[in-house]
Amino acid sequence: MQSAYIHEVRLPAHYNADQQYPVIFALHGMGSDEQDMLRLMEPLQSDFIIVAVRGPIAQGSGYAFFQIQSIGNPIRELYDASVQGLQQFIVELSSKYAIDPSRRYVAGFSQGAIMAMTLALVMGDAIKGIVAMSGYLPHFVKNEYTLQPNPALSAFVSHGDQDHLFPLQLGEDNANFFRQYTEHVTYVPYHGGHHVTPELYQQFQHFLRTDANLMTEEPKGLNS
Predict the structure, then answer these.
(1) What is the largest CA-CA distance in the chain?
(2) Which residues pair with 23 in a beta bridge?
(3) Annotated Gene Ontology MF terms (predicted)?
(4) Taking the domains of the chain in order of start, what are their residue ranges?
(5) According to the 3-state scheme, what is the secondary structure of 109-171?
(6) Is the separation of the CB atoms in 26 and 112 below 8 Å?
(7) Cα–Cα separations (whole angstroms), residue 36 to 54, 196, 202
(8) Element (H, E) at 90
(9) What CATH fold (topology level) applies to the domain 14-211?
């Protein structure tokens, strides 16, 4: 059966279908593609199954998961369709590979972060944790969706203080919103714009490895 989403999968070098592995579903930003997220997640391939997903909508030289009417105001029909489609995709891929159902993560940048946060809020125990870099939560998600996040959800939320698209306050709002549902929120404001800095690159990797019980060392610069 062909998936509804174009995607690429990277398996650990010694992948054994009789074991179970943590998985990261990686979602790109508007105008980018799955290759961008594969490069970003590459250091984690030794321990995680990486599933990089391409948005279904052509956007410039890349793709998108939804289009917008204005900044912060997605087209609702396209947004809803991607949320529903990605839920089905995650379930589908989880039955295809040796994925540990208690260690499913969604990581995204910008539009991908928006999707990651939304999926965590609606998919319950199916999602253990998220990495949401430089995104926001639409008002209709907060006010109209049925929210049922995993009580043990771990959320890594980051935002740059010089982000030209989404102000830093949105990152703070994201972290505070998730704190209503879980005690495991790591908020990382950083000095930079709408991009992933080298320090942030190291921090989200550490978060994922630690939360999946793959390491215990604590790096500098993380705050919860």
Answers:
(1) 47
(2) 49, 104
(3) hydrolase activity
(4) 14-211
(5) ECHHHHHHHHHHHHCHHHCCEEEEECCCCCHHHHHHCCCCCCCCCEEEEEEECCCCCCCHHHH
(6) yes
(7) 10, 12, 17
(8) helix 76-96
(9) Rossmann fold (3.40.50)
